[in-house]
Amino acid sequence: MTKTVVVVGTQWGDEGKGKITEYLSSKANIVVRYQGGNNAGHTIVFKQEKFKLNLIPSGIFRAEKVYLGNGMVINPKALIEEMKVLNRKGIDTSSIRISNRAHVILPYHIELDCLQEELKADQKVGTTKKGIGPAYVDKYDRIGIRIGEFIDSEIFGEKLQINLAEKNKLFSLYNKPPLCFQEIYQEYLEYARILKPYVTDTSYELDEAYRLGKKILFEGAQGIMLDIDHGTYPFVTSSNPSAGAVSIGAGIGPNLIDEVVGVVKAYSTRVGEGAFPTELKDEIGDYIRDRGNEYGTVTGRPRRIGWFDGVIVSQSRRVSGLTGLSINLLDVLSGLKTLKLCVAYELAGEEIKYVPATIKEFSKCTPKYIEMPGWSEDITQIKQFSELPLNAQNYVKKIEEITKVPVVMVSVGPDREQTIIIKTIF
Ligand code: IMP
Questions:
Q1: Residue 52 and residue 41 in contact, taking contact as beta carbons nearer than 8 Å
Q2: What CATH superfamily classification does 4-102+199-259 receive?
Q3: Which numbered atom of ligand 1 lies nearest the CA of 14?
């Protein structure tokens, strides 16, 4: 019996993981996030209402408990704001548990994120400017402030003072005014007071829940190409969105993971800078962007659009050990006469089927496509795979063939009902 499922992004993030995790969470008892912070953004339609979530796992609408794991970096102000928005709409947030080992994002992280991007000029990463990178840097530099320390006013005060002294020296190098200790301390003490009741040892609780037979869903943020190790470094985020990070970022053994569902768009999108071999800078790209409403949830930036890239999704299968694929936004492609799928790259006259490690090489990769006929029918109300137009069925089967991962779900619209289930998970 499946007890644990991981949901990961198999492209550049924004694959629609929120919809799938929200759907799967109706079968799970517990939903856990294990990396990243409020750089992530899910739009979830629940009971005909749209919700935007950045930090809180999508399971908040249905699961018994939702966990913010130790691998996350948490902006307390943003978290409280998100809780308030949900509460105002009648959603109970008392089921949230926050790891005492997760790291806190403070105003100086955000300031540094902006300054560093500015300094990098045309080499900028295109971050979400939420302070994610600088907070992870502090974690690995062993000067970060963990949630468990944050809720202890004495330790928080001491560490904040030391860190701020160092950061203010940095700000002076950037010709920026220093940040005021008292202002931050007083404001964040109040956030700590609000969040304290939610803080716990999440690894310990998850272990107990697992032993009691609870079903656990792990929700990844971002996607494989933004993984700090396996993505298009340096145009990546500062954590590991791939499934291997579940074990570290939630504090559970890797042997406890039963299924890994990769969420994939029927095409590709990317926000921020960096090479993108299958990018479409033409009217087809505009058509997909409009139909798919491809604008960032966090920053509102228009997303870059491209054809489906089988090399990248295969890399995701390899790194994350995908056991199933969930294809999203298939309906967006309706109306296109011909569809292209990238099956390999050409690099220096050679065919390769992996993503090269350097940006220099990656930006020289030209995609090798196969073409398939499209379909014109509206597929948004279809409930069975066999009812899809034949060309749409063939497109899905081709993705399966290219990636070597069985397709378990196909999404044909934003609503939870607009999901074709091929294999039941959980
Ligand atoms: P950061 O995570 O804010 O440091 O941004 C680093 C890179 O990851 C930038 O290219 C961002 O646009 C991208 N990124 C971060 N989070 C997401 C996400 O949830 N979806 C898509 N792109 C993201």
A1: yes
A2: Adenylosuccinate Synthetase, subunit A, domain 1 (3.40.440.10)
A3: 20
CATH for 264-421? 3.90.170.10
pLDDT at 381 over 80: yes
What separation in Å is there between the alpha carbon of 35 and the centre of ligand 1? 12
pLDDT tens by residue, 136-152: 999 999 999 999 999 99
Which residues lie below 8 Å from residue 423, measured CB to CB, with a gap of 6+? 324, 406, 408, 409
Res. 273 pLDDT band, cuts 50 70 90: confident
pLDDT at residue 33 is higher than 90: yes
- Given ligand 1 and candidates 14, 39, 42, 109, which is best to mutate, with the most ligand atoms within 8 Å of its CB? 39
Pick from 317, 315, 297: which is nearest to 365 by CA?
315
Q: Ligand 1 test: best mutation among 271, 276, 304, most atoms within 8 Å of CB?
A: 271
DSSP three-state, residue 412: coil
**Cβ proximity of 116 and 137 under 8 Å:** no
H or E stretch at 132: helix 132-140
Expressed in angstroms and rounded, the spacing between residue 382 Cα and the centre of ligand 1 is 33
**Cα–ligand 1 centroid distance for 75 (angstroms):** 16
Instruction: Indicate the domain borders of the chain.
Output: 4-102+199-259, 103-195, 264-421
Which pLDDT belongs to residue 47?
81
DSSP 417: T
Architecture category of domain 103-195 in CATH:
Orthogonal Bundle (1.10)
Average of per-residue pLDDT across 90-96: 96
